[in-house]
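Retry 2 of 3 after timeout on previous attempt. Resubmitting C-alpha cells to design endpoint.
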C-alpha cells in the first residue's frame, strides 16, 4: 500500500450555489429579476450553468455583481467561480473539437498569391469596411430607434384592471414605460404587466438609442373594471384618490382585522411603481401599478408587500387608511400585515422591513 486513501470532496457549482442562496431566502426568480433588473431567463441560465446562452462576459459579471448584492454575498467569489467553470468548459470543448477534427486533403490550386495581390486585397477590404461602418453610424445617428407595440392596441377596452404591454425595439436601446425603465432582451423584445385605474389610462412607451434619439408611442386603454365588496355590490373606486369601498364586516372599529382574515387595498401615487405581494406565503402579484390604480388582496393570516417606492405606495388595512408603506422614497421589502396589525404595529413592521432590506445586503469591497 502507498499509504494514501481516496476521499471524495463535494463542492457546489456556481448555479447550485445561486439556487441554494435564493432558496434559503424564499425568493422566486420573478422577484429576483424585478429587484436586480436582470431578465429571469438569464438568472435561470446562471443557475443551470447554461453559459452558452448568456451574453458577453462583461454583462455576466455585471449580472453576478447585482445578484450578489441582492443575495447579500461577496460578488468576487461568484465571479471567480464563474470564470473558473467557464474556463474548464472552454478547454473541454476545445479538446473535443480537436479529437473530432479530420485531416483535410491537400488542395493544390493554380492561383498564386503575390505580395502585390495581398496588398491590393487588404486595401480594398479596409476601404469597404470603413464605408460600411461609416454608413451604419450615420444612419444610426440620423434616425430614431425602431419601436413596435405588439399589444395592447391603441384605444382598446379591457374588463380587467391589468394589462400586459409587449413590443420590440432595438436591442441596445433604453426602454421606458411611463418613465419607468424596462429591461430589453437580446432580441429587442420587452414586456411588462401594468395595473390600470378605472377609466382611461394613458400609457407612454419610449425607446432611446445610444445617440439619444427617441421613439415614442402613446397608447390609450380604457378599463371597465369595477371593484366589488364581499356582499356582491359594486364599490366606488376613484382614480384620483384610489378609494375602494370595503365590507364593514371584514374589519373592526379600530381598523384591525377580524377573524375573517386580512384585506389590503394598495394605491400608488405618484406612479408607476413596481410591487410584489404575497398572501399566506404565495405570490399573488408581481408587476407595475400606474398612478391612481388600485389593487385589493385578501389572505387568511398575513400579507407581505415589497415595493419599488415605499413613499409612493399607500395602504388600506380592512378599510382603514394606514398611509404610505414607508417614509423612504426608496425600495422596501417584506412589510407584513397580519390579523393583529394595528397602525402602531404597521409602522414598526415598516421600519423593520426598511432596516432588513439594507442590512441583508453585504457591502462589497473595492479592489
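Retry 2 succeeded. Sequence:
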Amino acid at each position: 500500500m502507498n499509504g494514501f486513501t481516496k476521499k471524495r470532496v463535494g463542492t457546489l457549482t456556481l448555479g447550485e450555489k445561486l439556487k441554494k442562496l435564493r432558496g434559503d431566502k424564499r425568493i422566486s426568480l420573478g422577484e429576483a429579476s424585478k429587484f436586480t433588473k436582470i431578465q429571469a431567463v438569464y438568472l435561470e441560465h446562471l443557475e443551470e450553468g447554461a453559459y452558452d446562452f448568456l451574453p458577453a462576459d462583461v454583462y455576466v459579471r455585471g449580472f453576478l455583481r447585482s445578484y450578489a448584492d441582492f443575495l447579500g454575498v461577496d460578488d468576487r467569489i461568484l465571479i471567480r467561480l464563474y470564470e473558473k467553470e467557464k474556463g474548464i468548459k472552454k478547454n473541454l470543448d476545445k479538446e473535443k473539437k480537436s479529437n473530432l477534427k479530420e485531416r483535410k486533403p491537400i488542395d493544390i490550386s493554380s492561383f498564386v498569391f503575390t505580395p502585390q495581390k495581398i496588398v491590393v486585397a487588404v486595401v480594398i477590404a479596409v476601404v469597404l469596411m470603413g464605408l460600411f461602418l461609416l454608413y451604419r453610424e450615420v444612419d444610426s445617428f440620423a434616425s430614431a430607434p425602431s419601436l413596435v407595440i405588439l399589444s395592447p392596441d391603441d384605444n382598446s377596452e379591457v374588463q380587467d384592471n391589468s394589462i400586459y404591454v409587449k413590443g420590440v425595439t432595438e436591442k441596445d436601446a433604453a426602454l421606458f414605460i411611463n418613465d419607468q425603465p424596462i429591461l430589453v432582451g437580446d432580441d429587442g423584445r420587452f414586456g411588462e404587466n401594468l395595473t390600470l385605474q378605472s377609466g382611461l389610462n394613458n400609457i407612454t412607451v419610449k425607446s432611446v438609442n445610444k445617440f439619444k434619439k427617441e421613439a415614442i408611442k402613446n397608447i390609450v386603454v380604457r378599463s371597465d373594471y369595477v371593484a366589488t365588496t364581499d356582499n356582491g355590490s359594486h364599490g366606488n373606486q376613484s382614480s384620483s384618490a384610489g378609494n375602494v369601498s370595503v365590507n364593514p364586516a371584514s374589519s373592526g372599529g379600530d381598523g384591525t382585522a377580524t377573524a375573517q382574515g386580512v384585506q389590503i387595498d394598495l394605491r400608488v401615487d405618484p406612479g408607476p411603481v413596481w410591487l410584489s405581494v404575497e398572501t399566506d406565503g404565495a405570490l399573488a402579484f408581481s408587476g407595475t401599478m400606474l398612478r391612481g390604480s388600485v389593487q385589493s388582496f385578501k389572505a387568511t393570516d398575513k400579507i407581505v408587500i415589497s415595493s419599488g417606492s415605499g413613499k409612493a405606495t399607500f395602504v388600506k388595512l380592512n378599510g382603514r387608511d394606514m398611509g404610505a408603506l414607508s417614509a423612504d422614497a426608496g425600495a422596501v421589502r417584506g412589510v407584513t400585515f397580519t390579523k393583529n396589525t394595528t397602525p402602531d404595529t404597521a409602522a414598526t413592521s415598516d421600519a423593520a422591513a426598511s432596516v432588513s432590506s439594507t442590512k441583508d445586503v453585504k457591502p462589497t469591497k473595492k479592489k
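Attempt log closed. The two ends are 47 Å apart (CA to CA).
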